[in-house]
Specification:
The chain is an alpha+beta fold and about 150 residues long. It has 4 helices and 7 strands; from the N terminus they run βαβββαβαβαβ.
């Protein structure tokens, strides 16, 4: 059965102030290692001029990672408030995840093994599934975007 998938996630990076602050490209590298088959490319302001972003598209599945502007660390009084990123997964049209087995992607295999429920027969929100997956497989800490 074909469904449209959607997720909206906030990623917080816990860090010690003595360590280097995570940059957007470093978070994109972590996600790229989790989402095998997806290649994150810098948006360079083409679609998201209000914030820096990395986008990865694979056969109808779009992943978007947005971060704070590069100068945000000069603006925030408390540096820990600036270490957040927004991550989303969208499919523009209904897809069958079974067709993505060929990519041997950990996250797509994870979603295939979950008992995903559709609210209206065509749309499935995988926010909490992706939060659990990312939290359990990386040093990133995710929560639902509010």
């Amino acid at each position: 059965m074909k469904y449209r998938y959607n997720a909206e996630i906030q990623i917080n990076v816990d860090f010690d102030l003595s360590q280097t602050i995570y940059k957007l490209n470093e978070v994109a590298n972590v996600l790229e290692s989790l989402f095998r088959g997806f290649i994150f490319e810098n948006d360079n302001g083409e679609r998201f001029d209000e914030a820096p972003a990395f986008v990865a598209i694979l056969d109808g599945i779009e992943l978007i990672l947005m971060g704070p502007p590069d100068d945000v660390y000069e603006v925030y009084d408390e540096i820990e408030n600036a270490n957040f990123f927004c991550f989303s997964m969208k499919t523009k049209s209904p897809i069958d995840l079974e067709t993505y087995k060929q990519y041997n992607s950990k996250v797509l295999n994870f979603l295939l093994n979950e008992e995903l429920k559709s609210d209206n027969g065509i749309f499935i929100d995988v926010t909490f599934d992706l939060i659990n997956f990312i939290n359990n497989n990386s040093n990133l800490k995710c929560e639902q975007l509010t």
